[in-house]
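*** Fold description ***
***
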Amino acid sequence: MRILTTLLLTLLALSTWAQEGHNIKVTIDGYTEPQLYLAYYLGDKQYILDTVQRAKDNSFTFTGDEPLPGGIYLVVMAPDNQFIQVLVDEKNQRFSMSTVMGEDQLSKTYFKKSPDNQLFYDYLNFLAAQRPLGTAIQERLEAAQTEAEKEAIRQEMVGLNDNVLAHQLQIITEHAGSMPAAIIQANLPAEIPEFTGNEEEVNTQKWRWMQKHYFDNLNLGDVRMLRTPFLFQQVDYYIQKLQVQHPDTLALAIDFVLEKMKPAPDIFKFYLIHFLNFYAASKFVGMDAVYVHLVDNYYATNLAPWTAQEQLEKIIDNANRLRPLLIGQTAPDIRMEREDGSQISLSEVESPYTVLYFWRYDCGHCKESTPIMKAFYEKFKDHGVKIFAGCAKSRDEVPGCWDYIKENGIGEWIHVVDPYGRSRFMQTYDLKSTPQIYVLDKDKVIVSKRLGAEQLEDLLNRLLEEDEKAASGTK
């Protein structure tokens, strides 16, 4: 009895071991290249995972001791990178696939020991069969002469779409939890309810509803969705198209998305890193506030444990430098020297709008900006606008600042320097390059920043117009 028990345990262990790792055998009739590739989706890109050689029986086998993360994988063919999509679920990674080269590849793709893949390809073939029916109906609709005829044809199209939806819902219901069901459901459009009101009111209500329900069909906490071609598209659309592109709004939207991703740590990690890098590199004014928000609420609160300590410190230090310079913050005060050696602080400048301008006389972009800034000042100085211009030169290079000012006829601005770096304005304003422009209101609150000289006129026109409306009580 003891021998029998030991034998059963050994067989059980061997059976368990046999299910570990992955083994995907592929046969492609008509494919003559010696190599085949396995790739996967991640974000908006595809990456090669494995390369295998043709076996004696003309098959290709992707195998490994470790299981593959679940998702949609690509069997990629040389030399033109045609591919066949294959579903990989964490529970079943030992199966075979056979197909052919050519136009009838979809209808002649078969799987053994992979019910999910066979179900998915049966579904794809179903869609392929409906496509010409839809095309024929559309052609008849375009050729129809009477409204009654058109309406009858439209109802045919509705019936066809209903048939497709019914088939999709059947798969979702009967195969709940499977990869095909999750993929089909994730790509179903949201059913927007009917709203009342005028056109603008209805559109606003639809937009707000979509902001709350856009992910109703896509489970952001399903780790299998990370390696699909549609997750990144949907997340990107939600953030970039469905949201007002304002830092506060974007921060809330990203929090909403990341919260839904927390059940899948790999997805959460990928998108937190993605959002941080995206807004760190953003060229749009004010988007550094989103970066600071992500650092403060995730990296500085131990929600990014994968980050090495040295890198984490750099990320947090960068956010700390940016935080005082965010739009809506009071500009850090700096005290610098005029040409006559007298001192003046930024806070001493009385003006409805102050343009804080950091420049160098040997900077190519600064030279291009000078005539634009000069024309801008001439147009807006009667509105009380002033330019506080800090020349970013030190010690024996400072005289060149005054020479450049005289040569270019811009002496009416408030020009300052800091030969010995006592004000630390370079560090305070995180100056890595010039020119840098900030626009401050009467209280020295940052209204806009990091914009080009050519953008100043439009910005000031808008600000002055808003001030005028506010003063008159109009909207």
Remarks:
- The chain is about 45% helix and 20% strand.
- The first strand starts at residue 22 and ends at 29.
